[in-house]
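#lab-general

N.A. 3:47 PM
ok so I finally got the sequence cleaned up, no stray characters, all 217 residues accounted for. can someone with queue access submit it? mine expired

B.Y. 3:52 PM
send it over

N.A. 3:53 PM
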Amino acid sequence: MAPRVDSSSSDDLTAAYRRLNAAYQQTLRYAEDVRRLYQQVQRAIYQSLLGLANALEAKDPYTRGHSERVGAWSRSVAAALGLPASDVDMIGQAGLLHDIGKIGIPEAVLRKPGELDPDEWAVMRNHPLIGAQIVAPFDFFAAGALMIRHHHERCDGTGYPDGLVGDEIPIGARIITVADVYDALTSNRPYRTALPHATAVEDATRHTMRRKSTHRR
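B.Y. 4:20 PM
back already:
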C-alpha cells in the first residue's frame, strides 16, 4: 500500500518553493540593476575622460578633432580585421583617449611651432605614461590603458616608453599607432603642412614599422 501524502506537508513544500523562486527572481532583478548601474558609471567616467581630451584639443586648431578621427579609424580597422566586438569597442575608446596624457605636458612644448629639442622630446615622450596613469584606476579600462601606454611603440623596438618589439605590442596599440600617424601626416600642423594620402601611407608604414618616428603627434 502506497504511503499517503499529507496535504499540509505538500502545501508547505509548494509555499517554500514559491518563496524560494520569488527570492531568486528578485536576486536576478537586483543583479540586472547593478549591471545597468555599473554600465552607467563606466559611461560617465569615459565621457568625463573624453571631455578632458577634447578640452585639450580645443585649445589648438591644428589638433581639433584628431582624437575623434583616430578613434573612428581605429575602430574601423579593428572591425575590418575581424576582432571580437568587445575588442573593437575598447580599441575605439582607447583611440579616442590615446593622447589624454598630453594634459600633463607643458603648453610651451605642445604648441611649439618648430621641431622639439632633445630635452623637449624627453618631456613629450612622457605623455603615453601619463595617459595610462590617468585611466589606470578604472578596472574596466585596463586593456585600454595598455593601448594608451604603448601607442608610440615600434615593431623594431625603437619606440617608447618600453621599447617593445613586434607582437609584444598589443594589437590595439598597433592599430591606434597607424591611425595616429596617418592622421598626423594628413593634417596641417604648426611645424608641417599636410601630406597627400599616398605619401602619408608610405611614410606611416615606414615610421610605424622600421624606425623611430620624428613626427610629433
